[in-house]
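The instructor's notes for this session suggest beginning with a concrete chain rather than abstract definitions. Hand out the sequence below and ask the class to guess, before any prediction is shown, which regions might be ordered.
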Amino acid sequence: MMDKDRVIGSAKVVKGKIKEALGKAVGDVKLESEGKADKFEGKVQNAVGGIKDVIKEK
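After discussion, reveal the predicted structure:
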C-alpha cells in the first residue's frame, strides 16, 4: 500500500498545476506563484512517502 504522504503529495502537485495554469490564464502572478509552491511542496511530500515505502518493504 502506498504511503499517505505519496497520495497527499500527488494531490498537491495536481492542485498546484491547476492554480499555476489558472494564474497564468488570468494574469494573477500571486496565484501562479502559489501554484508553483504547491507543486514543489507536493513533489517533496511525494518523495518522502516514497522513502517511507522503501523502508516499509525491507
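Then share the key points. The longest helix spans residues 29-57. The chain has two helices and no strands.
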